[in-house]
Amino acid sequence: MKSDTSKQLFDRGMKVLVEGCSSASRGPMNYAPYPAYIREGKGARLWDVDDNEYIDWQLSFGCLPLGHAHPAIVDIVQEKVMGGTHFATALEVEVEAAELIVEMLPHVDKVRFANTGTEACMTGVRMARGITGKRKVLKFEGHYHGWYDGLLVSTNPQAVTTLGHPNDPVRIPDSSGLTPGSLEDTLVCVWNDADALERMLKTHGHEIACVVMEGAMSNMGVIPPKPGYLKQVQEMCRAYDVLFYLDETVTGFRVAPGGAAELYDLQPDIVTFGKALGQGFPVAAIAGPDHIMESIEYGKVLHYGSHNAPRLGLYAAKTMLEEMRRDNNAGWTKINAIGEEMTTRLNQVARDTGQNMRVQNVGSMFHPVFTDLDEITGYRDFCGHVNLAKYGEFSKLMREQGVFFTGNKILHNLSCTAHTQADIDRTIEAAGNALEQMSR
Ligand code: PLP
């Protein structure tokens, strides 16, 4: 595979960009010795600047349920861009997109649009504090909610030095530059363990504004909740008078039309969306029932942003939802079926080649890990039993065969409506080759 042009861009990029690009996740840390610079995407395909073609399973970290350059998205964006890009005023499409979302989500009365998941989560936490008057937030080991100071704790297995006792996990800051003050009000709990949460709520419930979590872990591979666990969390939150905040930045409009809340039959107090919602444009949202959302009315709990409700992004979001909902939500049926097939067949290839690779999924999100365990149920399994270097090697061998599996060792891969049976078959064949090569 040729990579001369990427190499040249990397050399130029290193002189003017940190790590040659704009996020550590995209640079040499995950794509050694240098990343492929991507030129364009169409459907489920990517091309890099050296004309290498890839089947894309990274899909912009989950931002593209319809794949790249879907004709309906291209049409609407081309039409609307002629009328201007951004007005920072109220918009017709803002009302229309919110109406669609409210129609789709029974637990949501109102929506407030933002740009990124991080901003949305920052606002969600501020709302919880504003509404309850309580200071602390309880999050879970291995759950990532963006790079906001107050939630950037215990998210990275590579940074782990000590985990502490499961009843009292240690808060591990995931960045330098965080003040002790910003972490003081963040409590960390073990996930998928109802007893651990009950203990925390018994002791700290009076000072906790919200319990915030992903509906399925998506930043430590893919780890589904144990059956009934999320319902127990919701009940406990109600019993201890703590808001239940479901961060659906990844799972929203992906694992089901109504996200993890629909999949696991939940009625969260606060929800946040991002990623899939914008279909490749930066669109995020904070949403919930009226009595929660009224907290941001007139800046009581402040939520501002020059780029909130981006016009073109909202046209893309609305069009994506309309496309995915066609024929009784056929879009979600398709991407979830592909996710299931990828999971089953990758697991089969692992067995056939004698490699200890295990693939877990929730619908269209799936991820291979190399482990001695039969199942990964949480952060502690991931920290202690997953060989991240082996996934790095596997994903590199896949990309060298024209299959773009994410190089980020703790993230996940995903399907979109543009993936075909031939894409799946070719990917499985490439996985067989990669695992054979790793066995030699
Ligand atoms: N919440 C979750 C669950 C995420 O996975 C992410 C990003 O990966 C975020 C929030 C932050 O979203 P963004 O990268 O758009 O700021």
Q: N- to C-terminal separation?
A: 21 Å
Number of strands: 16
Question: What is the number of helices?
Answer: 14
Total of domains? 2
Q: Describe the main β-sheet briefly.
A: 7 strands, mixed
Proportion of β residues? Answer: 15-25%
Major sheet: order of its strands? 4-12-11-10-9-5-8
Q: Which fold name is given in CATH as the topology of the largest domain?
A: Aspartate Aminotransferase, domain 2
Q: Going by CATH, what is the homologous superfamily of the largest domain? A: Type I PLP-dependent aspartate aminotransferase-like (Major domain)
Q: Which second-level CATH architecture of the largest domain applies? A: 3-Layer(aba) Sandwich
Bound molecules: pyridoxal-5'-phosphate
CATH class of the largest domain: Alpha Beta
Structural class: alpha/beta
The unreliable regions are none
Keywords: Aminotransferase, Pyridoxal phosphate, Transferase
Cofactor: pyridoxal 5'-phosphate
InterPro entries: Aminotrans_3, PyrdxlP-dep_Trfase, PyrdxlP-dep_Trfase_major, PyrdxlP-dep_Trfase_small
Organism: Parasedimentitalea denitrificans
Notes on the protein architecture:
The protein has about 450 residues and is α/β, with parallel strands linked by helices. It has 2 domains: about 5-70 and about 330-440, Aspartate Aminotransferase, domain 1 (Alpha-Beta Complex); about 70-320, Type I PLP-dependent aspartate aminotransferase-like (Major domain) (Aspartate Aminotransferase, domain 2), CATH 3.40.640. About 40% of the residues lie in helices and about 15% in strands. It contains 14 helices and 16 strands. It has helices spanning about 5-15, 60, 70-80, 90-105, 115-130, 180-185, 195-205, 230-240, 260-265, 290-295, 310-355, 380-385, 390-400, 420-440; strands spanning about 40, 45-50, 55, 110-115, 135-140, 165, 170, 185-190, 210-215, 245-250, 270-275, 285-290, 355-360, 365-370, 405, 415. It has a 7-stranded mixed beta sheet, with helices on both faces. It has a 4-stranded mixed beta sheet with strand order 1-2-3-15. A 3-stranded antiparallel beta sheet has the order 13-14-16. The longest helix is centred in the last third of the chain and has 43 residues, at about 310-355. It is globular. The chain starts with a helix and ends with a helix. About 50% of the residues are buried. The mean pLDDT is about 95. Bound molecules: pyridoxal-5'-phosphate. Pyridoxal-5'-phosphate binds near residues 117, 144, 146, 218 and 250.
